[in-house]
Amino acid sequence: MARSADEIQLRNPNSGRFAHIDAMRAFAVMLVVVSHTGLRHIVPGGSGVTIFFCISGFIITHLVLKEHAGSGGFDVGRFYLRRFLKLAPPFFLIVVVPTVIYSLWNPVRFTDFLAQVFFVFNWVDIAGNPRVLPGSTVVWSLAVEEQFYIGFALLWFWLVRSPKRLAWLAIIASAVAIASLLMRIHITETAFSHDRTYFGTDTRMDGIAIGVLSAVIFFWLEQRSGRGAMLRRILGSDWIVVFAVGGYLFSLVYRDEYFRETYRYSIQAMVAASLVVYGLIQKESWLRRLVQRVAELRPVQIVGLASYSIYLVHLSIYELTSSLFAGWPKPLAVTALSVSGVAVGVIIWRFVELPVERFKKRQEAGRVAACAVSPRVVRSVSLTATGGGSQ
């Protein structure tokens, strides 16, 4: 798609990543971090998880669609390897090693720990009272995402041969989003359980599915620049930002319990998806320039890039340090806890995630050079290597 002088796309020129998506990650993880300091009833940390779900669904789908457009295929083995290299090193350092050490002096239920390692811990959380490393219960959302990755890769491996793959993917994503909402409605109306609706894979999959659907829509627009002009104008309009902010605030201030257990998650996911696509459509406006400037602020980008490690480690840091701030005024204690959780996460990103990411890029570059592949495959590998991971 050509880019004229009066167009702007929210891409970080220094990294090739989309700055607004990393800024959304930063916003989401800070919601979770501050919420866990004891402000759950004030700061909507749960909405941060929904934003992560939507971004994950979008990014993974966007990458595999680009890979297929460039190479005509899908390497399921490399898909899982990339996910392993993204997730495993921080997980091993933050969850596995501390759990082993902690279990030498404290009770840990081995089956609960295995549930964390094999990404089914959300179902253990629903059962209640897991005995694991204090603070490591946050991996429930990671379990939901990993269950999606496994299923999505297998689904795409099957769909990729179909000439109607894009349509089928849109239909399946829409069906999953609707089914997830209906499941929450059913549970809320028949056997109310907040933990079941909040932690269940089936009840939270709509966030990821809406991210998948938004990636399909954007890819369709990107590949057919001469079609969908009206849809492109709508999704790229600054009114999308107004809609997103308004919808998000409504989902927070409307306190009806039935709404909060059912429609709230879907609304927040649609809001996040609309902002992701808005930032990708090339268009010039004062609001877009403002969003770009804020998104590219160095602290915002660092927190966004480190959001995975921050998310994994912050609650364990709170468990270790909260007694130190017990007598402090609430605002100071919240600030100290938040800063400590973010700082440790950024350090882990800097010295664990970042070196692994550089290793991945060197491997991809070496693969291109060694195989001397065609330009189509080179383009696919490049997009896969630089597109960024998900939370």
What features would you describe in this structure?
The structure is a single chain. It is built from 18 helices and no strands. With 391 residues, the protein is mainly α. The protein has one domain (19-386). It is globular, with a radius of gyration of 21 Å. Residues 1-9 and 375-391 have low confidence and may be disordered.
Walk me through the topology.
Blueprint: H1 19-35, H2 45-71, H3 76-103, H4 110-117, H5 121-127, H6 139-159, H7 165-190, H8 194-199, H9 201-223, H10 229-235, H11 239-253, H12 257-261, H13 263-280, H14 286-295, H15 298-305, H16 307-321, H17 330-371, H18 375-386
Helix pairs in contact: 1-2, 1-14, 1-15, 1-16, 2-6, 2-9, 2-13, 2-18, 3-16, 3-17, 5-6, 6-9, 7-9, 9-13, 11-13, 16-17, 17-18
Secondary structure class reads mainly alpha
Number of E strands: 0
Q: Which value, in Å, is the CA radius of gyration?
A: 21 Å
Q: State mean pLDDT (0 to 100 scale).
A: 89
How many structural domains does the protein architecture include? Answer: 1
| Shape call | globular
The number of helices is 18
Poorly predicted regions are: 1-9, 375-391
The share of residues in extended strands comes to under 5%
Order of helices and strands: HHHHHHHHHHHHHHHHHH
Task: For the structure shown, list the relevant keywords.
391 residues; mainly alpha
Care to give the gist of this entry?
With 391 residues, the chain is mostly helical.
